[in-house]
Amino acid sequence: MANAKQIEELKQTLLERKELIINNINESRESINSLKNSECNDEFDYAEVSSDSFKEGIIANQQVKELEEIEDAIKRIQKGTYGVCEMCDESIAIGRLRAKPFAKFCTPCREIYEVEK
Ligand SMILES: [Zn+2]
């Protein structure tokens, strides 16, 4: 079980990561907007612009998803349920939390979950 000090450290990691993602998402959105606003004079340019904004969109979506997971983890810290597996109620190993601070499941449950998916 992660102790209070470890949870505090993980919370800082989560908050830093959250800030980074928010900045990245804002930057992606800005570059998509500037691409949309840029003049496209021929089809080649248009294809370039579309594929870039498409990629940016995918990156932004992944980050939005991670952001949700991070916010969820911060809520669990506040509720005091952080670091406990949502499937089996066992403590999640500190090593796993350090690698993935927003982990919801312990390693064995995560493996079962991934196999079932
Ligand atoms: Zn579990």
TrEMBL record:
Signal peptide: none annotated. A zinc finger (dksA C4-type) spans 85-109. Residues 80-114 form the Zinc finger DksA/TraR C4-type domain. Gene3D superfamilies: DksA, coiled-coil domain. Keywords: Metal-binding, Zinc, Zinc-finger. It holds the Pfam family zf-dskA_traR. This is RNA polymerase-binding protein DksA. It comes from Arcobacter roscoffensis.
